Amino acid sequence: MQTRDRDMKYALYKQEQTQEVITLFKDTFSDSEGKEEGALIAKLVEDFLTLPTKDEDLYVFIAQDESERIVGSIIFSRLSFPNGENIFLLAPVAVATDCHGQGVGQGLIKFGLATLKEKGVTVAITYGDINFYSKTGFATISQDVIQAPLDLSYPEGWIAQSLVGEAVPHVVCKPTCLKAIDNPSYW
Known about the structure:
Elements: E1 2-5, E2 8-12, H1 18-33, H2 35-50, E3 58-64, E4 70-79, E5 87-95, H3 104-118, E6 123-127, H4 130-133, E7 139-140, E8 158-162
Parallel strand pairs: 5-6
Antiparallel strand pairs: 1-2, 2-3, 3-4, 4-5, 6-8, 7-8
Helix pairs in contact: 1-2
Pfam families: Acetyltransf_7
Keywords: Transferase
GO molecular function: acyltransferase activity, transferring groups other than amino-acyl groups
């Protein structure tokens, strides 16, 4: 599945793009947060892309410019609940520093959300800047509605959206996350 938007091609990542995606995250986070954070997020992405995971539990999307350079990437991973709710976590997100402010991230997130909706996912949740993510339909939720799999260092950043046109449902149980992101340093 892929689509084009303003000279940008959005698609599911392919395994041969692994190193380019890892480098994008490393460089983007190093530029904005420092080399230590860049290395930490690069390790997270490497783990997502290389640890054994069921195909239906992980979706990695990319944005490519007209020269086919990967300029953005997002990762959605399943949050597993005892009752089988179909909820995915969006994290991390990277857009090449020289492409910030051009709508690449928003376009990529919208493409990813539309793909997840087609696959029957009911809720997308993320942990980040509400000012950015609200542009693609995310809103703050309480952990009374959906708990995070690990303790949050910034609870105000716990945000979600329904992909089925209803309110975000209240989920009683605490989820587990994929092994790659099951580390307190990411939360």
